[in-house]
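Write out the 3D structure for:
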Amino acid sequence: MKFAWKELVIGLLVGVIAGGWFMSAKDPFGSWKPGGDRQKFHQRMMDKFTSELQLTHDQQAQVSVILEDTRAKVNALREASRPKFEEIRNASKAQISKLLTPEQNAKFEIMNARMEARREKRRAMKHF
């Protein structure tokens, strides 16, 4: 039974780490978080580039377009990779579920439902 507990802990850690990494993935030039104001973040980045690099107005316009394009590409990559993360998370949950008693499985399902609700809430905030 000791080995089963190790698998349980490893599985939970993999799921938590993968989920945490996915949900806290950063934009290339900063740490915009879901629910944050994209315009304020963009303006902060532009202010930083402008002051530290002493950009001309023409350069500012070009950098702004590049930052927006980069954000769109990163978001597309996140969306494209989401199914693979879900597949990994679901496989981990299935492995853990096999190790648990019926009572533990009932609690595990409730725990997973809470985590999924938090993920959905973050996802919804991200698209506001």
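The radius of gyration is 20 Å.
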